Amino acid sequence: MTEEKNTTPHSTEPRQDAQKHNEQSEMKESNPFIQLGIFAAVVVALIVFAFVKPSAARSVLLVALGFGGVVMVHELGHFLVAKLGGIKVEAFSIGFPPVFLGIRKLKKGFRVRFLPRIGQHQQLEEGDSETEYQIGLVPLGGYVKMLGQSDSGPTEQTDDPRSFQNRPTWIRIAVVAAGVTFNAIAAILLFMALFSRGIDLIPAVVGEVIPNSPAYEAGLRPGDEIVEVNGERFVDYESLLLAPVLSGKGRPISLVVRREGGREDTIRVVAEEPAVSAGEMAGMRTIGISSAHTLMISPKIADKPKEVKMLYELTGLRPGDEIKAVNNQTVRTPWEFNERVRETLAPTAALTVSRSWPADSPRTLETVSLPVRINPVVPNFREEFDLAHIFGLRPCLRVASVSEQPQVLGLFRRLIEGFKSLFRADAPDDDNQTNGKLAAGDILIRVADIDYPDFQNIRETTTAHKGKDLPLTVLRPDAQGRLQKVELTVRPYEVPRSDRVTIGFIPELAMEQPIVAHVIEEGSGSVQPQLPPGAKIVAVDGLPVETFYDVANLLKERRGQRIPIDFIDAQGRAGGTGMVAPERGAVHAQAQLDTKLAALPFEDYRVTFKSDNAFQAVGMGVKKVRQFIVRTLMTLYRLIKQEVPTTSLMGPVGIITVSYTIADSSLIHYLYFLGLLSSILAVMNLLPLPVLDGGVIVMLTIEKIIGRPINEKVQAAITYAGLALILALMLLVTYNDILRILFG
Questions:
Q1: How far is CA 570 from CA 520, 521, 531, 698, in A?
Q2: What span, in angstroms and rounded, lies between the C-alpha atoms of 264 and 68?
Q3: Which of 180, 182, 407, 422 is the Cys-Cys partner for 77 at CB 3.0 to 4.6 Å?
Q4: Distance of CA 352 to the CA centre of its chain
Q5: Which of 3, 4, 26, 75 is an active site residue?
């Protein structure tokens, strides 16, 4: 009888014995000496790295703890609410598979798995924990594995009442929503702690005010400090930027402004969207201001040899240089510095700087000369074509630099070209390359049928000739420096991802030549000279002039007087006229330093924000999280409207890189960055996309409405489409990150 029982095909005992034997074999195979060797090698490598590069090791550890902590908080929300909701949690992982380390509490002790084999079965006994806590080798996220729940396809079918699928819909929605809720709460708590301690942030101090903007018309001026926005006293620059977004369209924003001497004034300003949007707030309502900076070149770049070298080669400045004067005029604030530069009517501006280089050497005063460019358009909030002129005299336009038509390359082609640029020397200058093309230094005297065009003429004409030949006439210096007429033909093209049409050059006013393109009628008591288009001024008040700088400065010195002017017209005939320059105003031009850099790397102006008590810290933390959430939503909105290029997006690789940079420089600001990251993660995970928490909530809501689960095939199609979309987005942002890291 026993023998028959052992041989019957319906018997389960031999099968159970075999299964138990296989499981024990797998457990034995999962702990070979080779795994212990790998573990020991990893530990030794980490210890050596920590001793050899302690600073780098500290930063790497902070990044791992910080990034992992943000993910852990998110997954902890899912985990705790799932447990409270009676759902069986099989795994809690920081990082994605393959598993690096797994820990499970047993009835007696713990089970630790290091680099376990994929699919390895674990034998559990009564009293063992149902959840294994894991660390994955791919540190780009994490997950909570619940019984009966799957992110990669239809839900798993099981009769277990503790299955995710078998719990009430409201519990499942609560579990899914818990992750982003925990992220938001964690960000608030982190900001509370930071504000309780005190943290340096950019204050709501006005650095620049755009002419004709709502801020300018309301009376805001550089140096004003906004201490209250719509009744809220906690105001940093981020608050000021987002006030127009949080206020209704056309609704006035109430500002309390602290001015010199401590006086506080209340003003009301209605935000508008500028006619020409630029910068990170493009496409958003604004009041037309920028933040303030100090007059010191940021010392933080001192440990970046390439940036230090480039800064010195392009500007002659060093990290830590502090500007004391412009053209021998003392400056104490950034707005005084900006004003002195704007007033410069000369080819160069002389900066007096206080320097300590190397950093531990005594400070000395040095003079640095930087080239100046006079722009053809003065910034104006509502009008693009606020054309520049000097006492009503408009110089010709000159080509400051030229660029080739950009090629629209595919992802892999751009990578290949980027790698080539690392090893390719700059092409030597070749004078023949300018034949038949615009060249730096060309003075535009005719575009199509328009003589001596201004910036508006060129913009309108190039737009009308998109994809068609456009004839140009320029004045170009020959080998002896004499200007010669040159006829050219160019073809305007559309700038990629833009509605702009261009012929590929940056314009400036041709201040090197005293040629007047046109005379603009000005009020303010001025008397304008009778000068034909293209007239070359040879003398002002009997004094010979060689450049438009000479003309401008002589007119400036003789304001209010009648000033005789001698000139030669475009046909070479001599003539004379006169004008009266007004006592005030009428110099409608703006100079800027031509450094070949986007901007001088001034150190940010920061002040300490610290709460007075715990209740104030809570309010400041909540407001800061709200700011970052609104900023993220606005960025997504502008991305959909194509007002933000996809190249500006950053993925996990870029975030980790930025995390390392911040962690390497400041622990307190790294914690602030983690609060920002946690706030953004809360928003991104709530997007209604399959696989993301928001998409799962949408699916569960539909299930609740229709009274039954969504068809498995439909659910699978939606899920795989979501996975494909997320994968494509991950590839795009990772590609952006790689280009940003390798090629800047």
A1: 18, 21, 11, 72
A2: 45
A3: 182
A4: 31
A5: 75
Which residues are within 8 A (CB) of 48 and not within 5 positions of it... i.e. 6 or more apart?
none
Instruction: Note if 75 is an active site residue.
Output: yes
462/573 Cα distance (integer angstroms): 32
Torsion of CA 225, 227, 228, 229, to 10 degrees: 40
Which tokens go with 716? 């699978």
SS3 339: helix
CA distances from 714 to 5, 169, 219, 308, 599 (A): 48, 19, 59, 57, 53
Rounded Cα gap, residues 653 and 657, in angstroms:
6
Q: Sorting pLDDT into bands at 50, 70 and 90, what band is 313?
A: very high
Q: What is the maximal distance between C-alpha atoms in the chain?
A: 133
Give φ, ψ of 136 to 5 degrees: -90, 160
Helix (H) or strand (E) holding 240: helix 237-246
Mean pLDDT of 51-60: 81
The vertex-640 CA angle with 638 and 641, nearest 5°, equals 60
548: nearest Cα among 523, 561, 527, 531: 531
Q: How many other C-beta atoms can be found within 10 angstroms of the C-beta atom of residue 471?
A: 13
Share of the chain above pLDDT 70, in %: 85
What's this model's pTM, rounded to 2 decimal places?
A: 0.76
Q: Is the dihedral of CA 664, 667, 673, 678 positive or negative?
A: positive
Q: What is the pLDDT of residue 66?
A: 85
Residue 17 tokens, joined:
């014995």
Q: What are the φ and ψ backbone dihedral angles of 223, each rounded to 5 degrees?
A: 100, -15
For residue 385 the two structure tokens come to 């074509």
- Answer yes or no: are the C-beta atoms of 510 and 443 closer than 8 Å: yes
Give tens-digit pLDDT for 432-443. 344 568 999 999
The amino acid sitting at 302 is A
Q: Which residue has the tokens 């001024």?
A: 537
pLDDT tens for each residue of 181-197: 999 999 999 999 999 99
Three-state DSSP class for residue 138: strand
Instruction: Report which residue type is found at 119.
Output: G
Owner of token pair 């005719």: 446
Distances (CA, A) of 129 to 74, 80, 98, 108, 344: 22, 15, 21, 11, 75
E strand intervals along 287-374: 289-291, 293-297, 322-326, 329-330, 348-355, 364-374
